[in-house]
Amino acid sequence: MSTTSDSPSTKPDRDRPAPEPAAPDPAAPDPAAHPGTTRRSARREVWPLVRRLHFYAGVFVAPFLALAALTGLAYAFTPQFDAVVYSDELRVDRVAGARLPLADQVRAAMAVQPGAVATIVPPAEADASTQVVLSVPGLGEKDRTVYVDPYTGRVLGVHTTWSGSTPMTAWLDELHRSLHLGTPGRLYSETAASWLWVIVTAGALMWLGRRRHYRGRGPSLRAFRFDRSAKGVRRTRSRHAVTGAWLAGILLFLSATGLTWSDHAGARFDTAQEKLRSTAPKLDTARPGTTPAPGGGGGHHGGGSAPSGTADPAADVDAVLATARGAGMAGPVEISTPEDARGVWSVAQVDNRWPVHRDKVAVDASTGRVTDRVTWAETPWLAKLSSLGIQFHMGRLFGLANQILLGAAALGLLGVIFWGYRMWWQRRPTRADRRASFGRPPARGAWRDLPRPLLLLGVPAVLLVGWAVPMLGITLVAFLTIDGLLGAWRRRRTAPTGTG
User: Fold this and answer.
1) Mind telling me which PANTHER family this protein's record contains (predicted)?
2) Co-location of 358 and 464 in the same domain
């Protein structure tokens, strides 16, 4: 039996779904208590802020999130797009006989494209081409990749690439990361990723608050299903909330992995890895008895080597690959030439599918010996999580299943954004039948009534998060400042003007 009902009926109809519970809104004040006098009423004052954060942050970042979902959807399926668009370069017409030595293939590539050989990617499949990546002046961080038929030595095509990616994949990657707007685009995308987990968390708290009202009214899974009996804004809210609940886990994961790749939060993450001694070990490519060349190393996206210091890189490549294979480097590999005369070759496994194979070896071509080795097994757990998370974020870790999951998440996020804006439109301030503004401002002084342990833990936690995710901290301060000023202006505007 319900004690609070908006319906004159006193007996529910069991043949149809029950109407939306009339339990008090978590953001509504407690009529049985004086505001600010109990911990319960103080906690109720947190709900309006949670709702306002969810609403305003969602409005702020939803346009970029929609673009990120669309571009991420396209990027997740770039292997299939590449297979169609670049089929003439990536695949050979006919598999016939034995492959030519890699040295002959490299020389064929250098004959049509002058430059310093950076990396060579032998074909991982029988009908795949060999990729020879050359550093060419004037291309900045990009390279020129020559695709060679490993059976005939015929050059199949030449493209300007970035970190081994085809032009289309590189273009979609940059669109996903910065909308091709440079630094402003990177900042905006990092801000959106910084707020995504806040929006999801706030929405999950609101959903859990509503889910508690279903207890005792039917199966607990009811909150995971659309309310088909709802109409109008209630139907829109049901679709928005339920879809968001199903997507919450993967959206939080994508937010976290995206931040590790960002400029500012990514730098904080790298600092934390160094402090925890959890960075991935680096392969020593210095020739024994010499000092390493200054610089070196790559960012999150990787990249090719510096221009080779080997006069004829083609001369040693077959022996280097044979030595690496003998050292257990099976599967797809990428061969990098020495950075200068003091360096040696490196061979890295590039199989990013689970279970991943990411070992690396350094090979001295003059002696045919392995001079250093880095194994995936010895990589610290935090570096492993970061690497695996990024591969999942890119849709590479579990192959087609990974791509389908990301595609479903992208489409679901687009639906959540659409229903969020539709819900706002249905509750827009210009409607004559609008019941209430979204997000009642918390009462002044309500924070002082929160439990002291919560304050002692919460304030430092917020400061720590603001430091770890700088774009979140900066925009949060701006949001609270603007919201406070608007609240003060409204209170002043509605204050009595009489002098008594």
Assistant:
1) IRON-REGULATED INNER MEMBRANE PROTEIN-RELATED, PEPSY DOMAIN-CONTAINING PROTEIN
2) no
User: Please, which residues bridge with residue 347 across strands?
Assistant: 335, 361
* 191 & 262 share domain: yes
Do residues 226 and 311 both lie within one domain?
no
Taking the C-alpha atoms of residue 373 and residue 324, their distance in angstroms, rounded to an integer, is 10
Instruction: Say how many domains are in the chain.
Output: 2
Chain segment 291-316, per-residue pLDDT in tens? 665 554 433 344 444 455 556 778 99
Please name which of 404, 304, 389, 300 lies closest in space to residue 352, comparing C-alpha atoms.
389
Query: Do 109 and 232 reside in the same domain of the chain?
Result: no
Q: Of 2-6, 249-253, 339-343, which range is least confident?
A: 2-6
**Which range marks the domain in which residue 135 is found?**
93-165+283-379
CB neighbour list of residue 428: distance below 8 Å, 6 or more residues apart: 434
- Tell how strand 333-336 and strand 155-161 pair up: unpaired
Structure tokens at 315: 């001369």
459-496 confidence digits (pLDDT tens): 898 899 999 999 999 988 887 788 778 878 878 887 77
pLDDT in tens, 212-226: 665 555 445 677 888
Distance CA 442, CA 457 (A): 20
pLDDT at 480: 78
Beta strand 360-364 with 345-349: parallel, antiparallel or unpaired?
Answer: antiparallel
Cβ neighbour number for residue 306 with a 10 Å cutoff: 18
Identify the CA nearest to 196 among candidates 272, 247, 130: 247
Q: Are residues 357 and 409 in the same domain?
A: no
Is 205 in the same domain as 235? yes
